[in-house]
Amino acid sequence: MTYQVYVRSFADSNGDGLGDLAGIRSRLPYIAALGADAIWLNPCYPSPQRDHGYDVTDYFDIDPEYGTLEIFEDLVEQARQYGIRLLMDVVPNHCSSDHPWFLEALAAGPGSPARERFWFRDGKGESGELPPNDWTAIFGGSAWTRVTEPDGSPGQWYLGVFTPHQPDLDWHHPDVPEMFDRMLRFWFDRGVEGFRADAVTFLGKTEGLPDHGAEVPFGKGSHLFTHHPDGHIAWRRWRRLVEDYNRTNDRDVLLLAEAWTADDPGALAAYVNPEEFHQAFAFDLTTAPWRADAWRKAIDDTLDVLQAEGLYPAWTLNNHDVERAVTRYGRADATQLDDVGRSNIVPSAAEVDERLGRRRARAATLAMLALPGSVFLYAGEELGLPEVLDLPDEVRTDPVHARSGGRVKGRDGCRIPLPWTVSPAGSHGFSPGPGAAEPWLPQPEDWGIRSAEALESDTSSILHLYRDAVAVRRKLTDLQGLDLTWHDIGPGVLAFARGNAVVVLNPTDHDLQIPPALLEGRRVVLVSDPSRRSTVRGTVPADTCVWLAP
Ligand code: GLC
Ligand code: CA
Question: Which of 6, 8, 50, 51 to mutate to test the pocket of ligand 1 (most atoms within 8 A of CB)?
Fold first, then answer.
């Protein structure tokens, strides 16, 4: 299990209201107790934080808000002592508009070699006042921004498919791949065991940058700037670098792709293969409605394309870009929603029943932890934190909010600083003691009862379920392989075998009787809701998952 740490929201060591590396270091025992084999850190490089680190100004350092290279190296070392590997986040599609390369390009003017590292183009219209094409940005507005030239005149336009603060890099310029080669090695040399590569489907743009011609839904990219073959040239280069690095240094570093290919398994296979990424996230479960058929399709689609190659996916139910599962599953439309046309950053607006959502999230977690492949857990998920929906607009920082003119709330609600203690002191233990600054996003009133401390003392809490499930997953040899066999035990339910173990997920609203044949020679080793004793007699209550093993 890999534990995803959103650095800014995890633990603040110096009281400035921002999570930091020393904060993570102080919480290593907690992460180790969860059973994590690895930590994935969201970007912690110097950045103006306009998309919280996904806008990098220096790929070879740590943001002073988060610490120093020295603290980073110490974190790597201390994590290693717990048997935890550290993965970083690499952002290759774009850098910050404050990156020295971009500042140089602005200063150097049109036609300069410095502009060739980006996508600068003349505008259309009589005096270049119209963008070069009609592409819209993922986070809203045009994908083009006009610059003011050094002489003060309105000038060229540059491409930023996310926001204007994240100019896209043109990988045809030799400096670009060369810098990323150096970057990967730089961090591997400091003990980093791999990278989660950001937004890999966006690298490379259709030649001639033609108009898209039709409206693209908010949160989705145009096919003219997604899945371009140039991306694959870059990933093959990275994979060769990694193979070479591993061979020369006797290491085992890996590359993991963030490729939004939910509902498009063929596209996933194009990124995960022996010449490109070792692994990729399977995002299908983050958009699948709470229904057995949808879950089965999500699992089958992903496994079908990868298993044939002996490869496996990285499953996830939560991350810093999606509405937290407790809220998602508690929505009145959780069973009907189809992911078609829906994006991870535009959630539903239906009513939320949080208790129901938490019950389902527990069941979903148990089912996911039994799937073949690796599993990513997003910090706070083990506390069953909901999405914070009622943040006032003025505290929202996600560029999605501003770029959509407030129409889309954005992703701040899944990034609220974590509650560690019941007592409100130091923002529920997020920051040290009295006198600490307010956290960068406000915590809700009830954060204390959701804290790690509160859940620790309740053995039926979701925190205990996580720990138990991760521990059993590790021990149970049946779960180690890549096999998965479906059992059809009735409409609306999901049952699969992994070796001799059997997992039953009942996402319906009524009790399910497990067929005696499945119970024979097996006992219940885990139940997502331990308060329902009936499971012992072979019943799986509504919205519950059980693991059966010999
Ligand atoms: C990825 C990141 C997201 C970021 C975007 C642009 O999707 O996960 O947080 O905003 O890329 O870099
Ligand atoms: Ca801090």
Answer: 51
Question: In whole angstroms, what is the distance from residue 165 CA to residue 184 CA?
Answer: 23
Report the residue among 52, 321, 343, 346 best suited for mutation to probe ligand 1: largest number of ligand atoms under 8 A from its CB.
321
Q: Give the Å distance between the CA of 320 and the centre of ligand 1.
A: 9
Compute the distance from residue 209 Cα to the ligand 2 centre, in Å: 43
Whether pLDDT at 340 is above 70: no
List beta partners, residue 420. none
User: What are the pocket residues of ligand 1 if the criterion is a CB atom closer than 6 Å to any ligand atom?
Assistant: 51, 54, 91, 162, 198-199, 258, 320-321
Note the pLDDT tens digit of each residue in 424-441: 999 999 999 889 999 999
pLDDT digits (tens, 9 = 90+) for 478-520: 999 889 999 999 999 999 999 999 999 999 999 999 999 999 9
Long-range CB contacts (within 8 A, 24+) of 401-408? 403/137, 403/139, 403/140, 403/141, 403/163, 404/139, 404/140, 404/218, 405/140, 407/218, 408/140, 408/218, 408/219, 408/345, 408/346
**Diameter of the chain by CA atoms?**
81
CA–CA distance, 75 with 90 (Å, rounded to integer): 18
State the Rg of the chain over Cα.
Answer: 24
Residue type, 247: R
Atom of ligand 1 nearest to the CA of 319: 8
DSSP state of 383: G
Our CA angle for 129, 135, 139, nearest 5°, is: 110
Residue 533 pLDDT level (bands cut at 50, 70, 90):
low
Task: Give the global pTM.
Answer: 0.97
> How confident is the model over 361-402, as pLDDT tens digits?
999 999 999 999 999 999 999 999 999 999 999 999 999 999
